[in-house]
Amino acid sequence: NILDSVGAWLNFTNTFTHLSSDEKWGSLENGSWNGMLGDVYRGEKDLAINYFTITDERAQDFDFSVSYYNEGFGFIGLIPVPLPPAMSLLFPFSPVLWMSLMAMIAVACMSFHVLQLQYDRSRSISESIIAVSQ
């Protein structure tokens, strides 16, 4: 609709095609452009509108509009050094998880010890810890 309005104002007509002559986007192969960019380069089309990445290779032959949409970003970092073997057991879990695990073991040991006392079995705390850990 916008191009029709501008065309009526500036006295030109337009036609749209949804595919290029070879149904490709456009790249430089064997010294010639193919796809939508090839159609524009050969003068078969006046304009191509699509998600084209602006590259130095394309900028040598084509004039791009101001990029209005940027897609694709990433982060890069160094590969971390391997941990010493002694730390490989501790590293996968956070300190909060380790503390929670220790608290759960303590609660289980104390609960087991209290249950043993209710049944008149006299075990020491250390014997209760050993029994729970088995």
From TrEMBL:
<keyword id="KW-1003">Cell membrane</keyword>
<dbReference type="Pfam" id="PF10613">
    <property type="entry name" value="Lig_chan-Glu_bd"/>
</dbReference>
<feature type="transmembrane region" description="Helical">
    <location>
        <begin position="96"/>
        <end position="115"/>
    </location>
</feature>
<keyword id="KW-0325">Glycoprotein</keyword>
<keyword id="KW-0675">Receptor</keyword>
<dbReference type="GO" id="GO:0005886">
    <property type="term" value="C:plasma membrane"/>
</dbReference>
<keyword id="KW-1071">Ligand-gated ion channel</keyword>
<keyword id="KW-0812">Transmembrane</keyword>
<keyword id="KW-0472">Membrane</keyword>
<keyword id="KW-1133">Transmembrane helix</keyword>
<keyword id="KW-0813">Transport</keyword>
<keyword id="KW-0407">Ion channel</keyword>
<dbReference type="GO" id="GO:0015276">
    <property type="term" value="F:ligand-gated monoatomic ion channel activity"/>
</dbReference>
<protein>
    <recommendedName>
        <fullName>Ionotropic glutamate receptor L-glutamate and glycine-binding domain-containing protein</fullName>
    </recommendedName>
</protein>
<dbReference type="InterPro" id="IPR052192">
    <property type="entry name" value="Insect_Ionotropic_Sensory_Rcpt"/>
</dbReference>
<keyword id="KW-0406">Ion transport</keyword>
<dbReference type="InterPro" id="IPR019594">
    <property type="entry name" value="Glu/Gly-bd"/>
</dbReference>
<feature type="domain" description="Ionotropic glutamate receptor L-glutamate and glycine-binding">
    <location>
        <begin position="2"/>
        <end position="75"/>
    </location>
</feature>
